């Protein structure tokens, strides 16, 4: 019998394994239901096509931004997904590479285009900040559906309103919109602080940073109306709760879920491919099931889903951008003012 060279066989196995070792790409994104959908519905096709294993790193936008800053010398995350406010910080701090050119980006709506992020990130989902309300309670009381930001200041909602504080994007957007409709804006927030302090705060039961807690407050009948995100309303509606979402007539601040290739990562090519995949029409339609409006004009949604998310030219016309350069420069100052005068 011919003797087997065990050393040669072991070497061959090692070389073979090395040749087919699968790359691991780390993606930082939102936690909760979004993560589950991302891992089970979005990623499998990409992983198979690009022979890569994608590991999901869950966290809030601020938490994952802090991770990138802490790992700057040796980045472990390859692709990051943030709200547009933190994404502007990431771009400013040099944490994102330039996006590679791709035909898919030609179909991105202007509000989510890479040009808004100096070519270093692109929107992959749209969330509207508006007014959510308990339809059953409104019907019982004979109340008309809200149509304006000013409606949440109506005295009939005394201690029946909730929102994020200024530390949350929905709370910040509330302050900005009350400033705008009272003659100010990002460059002059005094009108907003005055309106929120005098007219909105008396109606607010709680300024909560927890969207899970806000949902629970609706379900336990502690509140009837809230400033919230379209994606959060969709998630609560899935449970059977009679929540409805309104785009206020003065405009609806857009939250743009944005992705970038992290600077200095070792899988730059596959990282670029992942973002292009996320921006594709078919994947955009899948994101809509989690309440994110498509950023790609070519994405097609079924009628029921299309009504629940920012979708189509009419709804996108209601979305208003935020001046994040000014906001990020002033936010610490506004936060101190909020703590002193609102809460």
Automatic annotation (TrEMBL):
Residues 1-21 form the signal peptide. It comes from the Bacteria. One of its GO terms (molecular function) is thiamine pyrophosphate binding. The keyword Signal applies. GO terms for biological process: thiamine transport. GO terms for cellular component: outer membrane-bounded periplasmic space. It holds the Pfam family SBP_bac_8. Keywords: Signal. This is Branched-chain amino acid ABC transporter substrate-binding protein. It comes from Pseudomonas oryzihabitans. The lineage of its organism: Bacteria, Pseudomonadati, Pseudomonadota, Gammaproteobacteria, Pseudomonadales.
């Amino acid at each position: 019998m011919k003797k087997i060279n065990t050393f040669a066989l072991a070497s061959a196995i090692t070389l073979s394994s090395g040749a087919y070792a699968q790359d691991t790409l780390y993606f930082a994104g939102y936690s909760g239901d979004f993560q589950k959908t991302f891992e089970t519905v979005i990623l499998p096709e990409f992983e198979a096509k690009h022979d890569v294993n994608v590991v999901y790193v869950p966290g809030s936008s601020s938490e994952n931004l802090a991770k990138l800053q802490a790992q700057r010398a040796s980045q472990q995350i390859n692709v990051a997904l943030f709200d547009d406010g933190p994404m502007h910080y990431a771009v400013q701090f040099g944490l994102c590479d330039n996006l590679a050119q791709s035909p898919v980006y030609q179909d991105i709506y202007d509000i989510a285009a890479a040009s808004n992020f100096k070519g270093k990130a692109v929107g992959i989902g749209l969330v509207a900040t508006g007014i959510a309300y308990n339809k059953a309670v409104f019907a019982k009381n004979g109340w008309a559906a809200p149509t304006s930001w000013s409606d949440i200041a109506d005295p009939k909602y005394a201690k029946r309103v909730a929102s994020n504080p200024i530390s949350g994007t929905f709370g910040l957007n509330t302050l900005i919109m009350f400033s705008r409709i009272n003659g100010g804006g990002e460059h002059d927030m005094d009108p907003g602080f005055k309106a929120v302090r005098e007219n909105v705060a008396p109606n607010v039961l709680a300024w909560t940073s927890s969207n899970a807690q806000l949902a629970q407050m609706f379900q336990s009948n502690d509140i009837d109306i809230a400033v919230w995100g379209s994606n959060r309303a969709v998630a609560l509606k899935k449970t059977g709760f009679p929540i409805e979402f309104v785009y206020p007539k003065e405009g609806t601040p857009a939250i743009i879920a944005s992705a970038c290739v992290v600077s200095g990562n070792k899988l730059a090519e596959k990282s670029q491919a992942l973002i292009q995949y996320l921006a594709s029409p078919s994947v955009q339609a899948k994101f809509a099931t989690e309440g994110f409006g498509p950023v790609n004009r070519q994405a097609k949604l079924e009628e029921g889903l299309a009504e629940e998310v920012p979708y189509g030219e009419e709804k996108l016309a209601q979305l208003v951008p935020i001046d994040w350069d000014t906001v990020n420069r002033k936010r610490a100052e506004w936060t101190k003012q909020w703590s002193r005068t609102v809460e």
